[in-house]
Design goal:
By secondary structure, this protein is an alpha/beta fold. The chain contains ten helices and eleven strands.
Length: 294
């Protein structure tokens, strides 16, 4: 019997509706949440991502500001723009659209964003608070995964969660989120990576298996315990001349095979991706409350 498909679009819509209601409450107090996206590279993929953020913000009633910096400009020009946004009381969230040119220091730029406006949750102060179990603006994809699981009616408490991938964007923050106390966490967590010996021995023990390693179809059916919940964070582009676009998107999980043994699974696309954007606007509203002491 095939797994239940976790519909990321539907759950993202729930979160977006909740955010829209909160935005209306803030507007009644003369606070209009605003997100600024700083874009450096101008290409089709980046433009698509920025446009998607704009549409989601508009639907939720959040003001959207796009700040463009020429890709050939010095790094200081980008830092100056971030400084302006940090000082603008009408801007509540700042997001750096990645990737940026190799000539710019991404770590230094992220650290320049005010921690209270860091809706991506990548600033060292927010990561430090996350590690300590304190309230903070947490990374969007990592914080969205417990939402996907619990809103699908799956109890996480006491379950063994195995994460495949140790990136700063997903693996590390997710590990710290899942070991917290609470109804959307309280898991026993194993974090595996490219240096893990006998990887399948670990993944086959997972009640909840999260694949975030960035390799197409890396997680195969032999790596998954029967009845597991499988969350596929990966999004990889494979050439496919039979597809109208000339390519297709696939995850880190061999979806067609794994869905036959898992109880629950996220598709790619339509799984984790929509949740990440929904958590971005939720962080924007949270940032607005933090800055206005509500």
């Amino acid at each position: 019997m095939s797994a239940n498909i976790i519909d990321g679009n539907s759950i993202a819509a729930q979160i977006q509706e909740e955010v829209a209601r909160e935005v209306q409450r803030l507007k009644q107090k003369q606070i209009h949440p605003c997100l600024a996206v700083v874009a450096v590279r101008k290409d089709g993929v980046s433009e698509c991502y920025v446009g998607n953020k704009d549409r989601v913000c508009e639907a939720a009633g959040i003001r959207f500001l796009k700040v463009e910096v020429n890709a050939g400009a010095p790094e200081q020009a980008l830092l100056d723009e971030i400084d302006k946004l940090n000082q603008d009381p009408n801007v509540h969230g700042i997001l750096l659209q990645l990737p940026i040119p190799h000539s710019m220091n991404q770590e230094r730029i992220v650290e320049r964003i005010s921690p209270r406006k860091d809706v991506d949750g990548f600033h060292p102060e927010n990561i430090g608070k996350l590690l300590m179990g304190l309230d903070c603006l947490a990374p969007c994809t990592a914080s969205g995964i417990p939402e996907l699981i619990t809103r699908s009616g799956i109890n996480m408490a006491g379950k063994h969660a195995v994460i495949v991938g140790r990136s700063n964007l997903v693996g590390k923050p997710l590990m710290n989120l899942l070991i917290r106390k609470g109804d959307k966490a309280n898991c026993t967590v194993t974090c595996c990576h490219s240096g893990t010996d006998h990887l399948a021995n670990h993944t086959r023990q997972a009640d909840i298996l999260i694949a975030a390693i960035g390799v197409p179809h890396f997680v195969t059916v032999g790596m998954v315990k029967e009845g597991a919940t499988v969350i596929d964070v990966g999004i990889n582009r494979l050439d496919d001349l039979e597809h109208s676009l000339g390519y297709r998107l696939v995850g880190d999980v061999d979806y067609e095979e794994v869905r036959e043994v898992a109880d629950n699974i996220t598709p790619v696309p339509g799984g984790v991706g929509p949740i990440s954007v929904a958590m971005m606007i939720r962080n924007t509203v949270k940032a607005a409350r933090l800055q206005t002491f509500l």
